[in-house]
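Design job #97: recover the sequence.
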């Protein structure tokens, strides 16, 4: 199988965005969840002509699917605002997975809010796993939207979330949302900054001593981490931390949302293949065709096929690593006879 561990519902029907705008316009009240009306046929149309069509063209068997990252927008409103929005978005993802059970597995957003106790996310996290069948969650290290005023992800305030993740044996993808800071372009700067910042926070901290079974996926190829691996190794030494392979790589994984061959080659040369999961994040931040190759930038499968890898490593990146890092996905596939 080829499993894409990083997909977002970027083509949701317009009604979802309209509901959100109504919520934002009336943060002290706003529309009720029952006022959102999206039929199954609308969902099929939104998926079949977009993600599913490209998956078929590119040979992708299944995508771990979550709400649109830029729509999470945790900086808007308060905890109640985010809780209601997360519930609606997670329900919609679960419906897509029900309509296409062999092509999509649901991952949930958390109802984070700036300054709020992360433990407030637990009811939605539990509902997403127990009722919706979520195989992962997205964790935003900066719910402020580019102001970076939250504690690092190693802070003990996060521990209730990590305890629940370990209880359910699910990973989190560390993924920010929209930037409201004009100095940080959302997808070109803020996303990659966050990947790098999260990795450095993990280097500085000792999170996995307390949670040896916790698994975190850093998207977009890990931001600057692979490119500056020597810097991070040197900083780890200066901080009195063990080598990165021992300190973080037992628990931290990188996806392949890197949109050119040299970038993928560097990632695979620096990071052990056991820590790399195939992903494309289509239809996402980079949607155009590269005029140098004639192929979409986000057709990352082409780069994996052309990489200098033994077959066993390539198969692990395609499938084996995802099934290991996402045990609930593995169980879902086994129930389907795959």
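Job complete. Output follows.
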């Amino acid at each position: 199988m080829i499993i894409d561990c990083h997909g977002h519902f970027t083509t949701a029907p317009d009604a979802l965005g309209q509901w959100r705008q109504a919520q934002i316009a009336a943060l002290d009240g706003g529309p009720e969840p029952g006022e959102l009306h999206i039929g199954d046929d609308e969902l099929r149309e939104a998926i079949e002509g977009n993600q599913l069509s490209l998956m078929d063209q590119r040979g992708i068997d299944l995508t771990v699917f979550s709400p649109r990252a830029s729509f999470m927008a945790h900086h808007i409103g308060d905890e109640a605002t985010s809780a209601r929005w997360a519930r609606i978005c997670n329900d919609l993802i679960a419906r897509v997975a029900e309509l296409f059970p062999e092509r999509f597995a649901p991952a949930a957003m958390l109802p984070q809010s700036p300054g709020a106790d992360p433990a407030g996310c637990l009811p939605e996290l539990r509902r997403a796993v127990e009722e919706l069948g979520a195989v992962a969650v997205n964790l935003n290290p900066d719910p402020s939207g580019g102001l970076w005023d939250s504690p690092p992800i190693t802070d003990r305030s996060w521990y209730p979330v990590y305890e629940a993740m370990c209880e359910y044996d699910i990973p989190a993808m560390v993924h920010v949302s929209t930037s409201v800071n004009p100095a940080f372009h959302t997808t070109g700067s803020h996303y990659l900054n966050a990947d790098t910042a999260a990795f450095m926070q993990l280097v500085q901290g000792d999170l996995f001593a307390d949670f040896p079974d916790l698994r975190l996926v850093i998207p977009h190829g890990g931001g600057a981490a692979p490119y500056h691996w020597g810097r991070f190794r040197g900083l780890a030494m200066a901080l009195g931390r063990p080598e990165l392979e021992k300190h973080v790589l037992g628990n931290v994984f990188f996806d392949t949302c890197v949109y050119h061959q040299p970038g993928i080659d560097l990632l695979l040369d620096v990071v052990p293949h056991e820590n790399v999961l195939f992903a494309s994040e289509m239809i996402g931040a980079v949607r155009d065709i590269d005029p140098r190759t004639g192929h979409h930038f986000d057709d990352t499968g082409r780069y994996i096929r052309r990489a200098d890898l033994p077959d066993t490593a390539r198969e692990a990146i395609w499938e084996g690593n995802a099934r290991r890092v996402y045990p609930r996905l593995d169980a879902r596939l086994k129930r389907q006879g795959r």
